[in-house]
Design a protein that fits this description.
Order of helices and strands: HHHHHH
Strand content: under 5%
Helix content: over 70%
Mean pLDDT: 92
CATH architecture: Orthogonal Bundle
CATH topology: Ribonuclease iii, N-terminal Endonuclease Domain, Chain A
Distance between the termini: 37 Å
Number of helices: 6
Number of strands: 0
Structural class: mainly alpha
Largest sheet: none
Low-confidence stretches: none
CATH class: Mainly Alpha
């Protein structure tokens, strides 16, 4: 059995990135977008670092996150990494990584209702 609390921020972000992208892909398919190129273009809008960083800011600014979730995000944002941002500045990249770590943490802790709530809130309310 995996001890989620022993995982580092990069590990949480690694799984969170995958989980989040699958959720966004399903979200876009439910919007009746049928051409794959259009699905891909719409998905990119939501999974890019700028959107994820803005989503995290929205969640924090509106006091949506629990203390534990804020801790996970801060830990991930401040985690030392050798990975470099490809298409954005380092600060945006770190905030996007923090958002992905939050998603990974919720997923691995089987907090699926909370995960859905946060993602739906971001999709519906955040003007990212």
């Amino acid at each position: 059995m995996m001890n989620i609390d022993s995982l580092n921020a990069q590990e949480l972000a690694y799984i969170g990135d995958s989980v989040y992208e699958v959720i966004i892909r399903k979200y876009n398919m439910n919007r009746n977008i049928r051409k794959v190129i259009n699905l891909q273009n719409e998905t990119i809008k939501y999974v890019r670092a700028n959107y994820q960083a803005s989503a995290l800011k929205y969640l924090i600014d509106n006091n949506i996150l629990t203390e534990k979730e804020v801790y996970i995000c801060k830990n991930a944002r401040n985690y030392k990494t050798s990975t470099k941002a490809k298409h954005t500045d380092i600060l945006t990249y770190k905030h996007a990584t923090a958002f992905e770590a939050l998603i990974g943490y919720l997923y691995l802790n089987n907090e699926i209702d909370r995960l859905k709530y946060i993602i739906n809130l971001v999709l519906e309310e955040c003007k990212c």
